[in-house]
Structure prediction request, 167 residues.
Amino acid sequence: MVLFQVVVGFLFLISGRRLFWLFVGCLGAVTGMLVMEPFIGNVDWPVIVLVIAMAGVCGAVLAIVFQKGAVGLSGFLAGGYLAVAFPSSLGATVPDGLWVIYLIGGLVGLVVALMFFEWALIVLSSLSGASLIIEAVGLPAFEAMVVLLVLAVAGTILQTRQLMVEI
Prediction:
C-alpha cells in the first residue's frame, strides 16, 4: 500500500496534467481505497483490490470518453481527497463527518477544475501527489508540512514548464 501511494504520488507530481486519464484513474483508485478502508477488517483482500481496480478503471474510462465531465470528476475527487488527507497528513484529527468534509472539498475542487482546467490539473495533481507521498511516508506534522510544500511546488514548476514547452 505504501509503495503504491508513493508511486502514484510521484506520477501525479510529474505528469498529472499530461497524463490526465491516468490522474483520474489513480484518483478513482485512491477514492476506492478510502471507501474500502473502514471495511478492511471485514472484507477479503481480493474484494478490496477488485473495488480499487474497478474505481481506477472507471475513472480512466471516464477521462478518455467524457473529458469535460472527467475534468469535473477529477476536480471533485482531488478536492475531496485533499480535504480529507491534507489535515490528517499534517497530524490533525479528522472529525467523524468525513463524508461531509470530502463532499465540500470535492465541490470546491469541481468548481476550480472547471474554471481553470490546465492550471487546476497542475495544482491539484501536484498537491494530491505530494499529499499521497507524505501520507505514505508518515512524517511528523512540521516536517510533513515542509516536505508537502516543497513537493507540491516542485511538481507545479515541473508541470508548468512542460505546459510552456507545449505552447
In short: The two ends are 37 Å apart (CA to CA). Residues 2-166 form one domain. The chain has one domain: 2-166.
